[in-house]
User: Fold this.
Amino acid sequence: MASYGDLQFVTANSAHAVKGLAWPCRINNTGGMFSINYNETSIKDSLIQLLLTQRGERPMRLDYGTDLRSSVFAPMDAQTIEGLETSIKTAIERYEPRVLIRSFTLSPSEETSEMNLELAFSVKDNVFSTDGIYLTVNTQGVVING
Assistant:
């Protein structure tokens, strides 16, 4: 998609592009409009938003999100980890059907009250390309490593 200021021109290559707001939200330099991401970047941002939204946090969509952020305050036993893994995979399947999960690892650290998540995924329209999300969630907040 070619653009000039706030005008955008659709070309044959971008007619089927996926677009969404960039995350974290920022303003671009073309008239104060919010930045937009396209295709794989947009889908990755959407996945990060899904993972970091606490279930029950979004009005009118109380089942959207995961319990990843609150999990650092739960006991780090096998039952908690298994339930969290299942709920995250279910949320991704339900709210982000555009992706295929290639690998998923959830590693707790009871000593530091951290939860490390590694997610490798492919966009269903481009299964030959794999991207990843690496998050560390602790009592201080979230660190996005990729």
About this structure: The two ends are 26 Å apart (CA to CA).
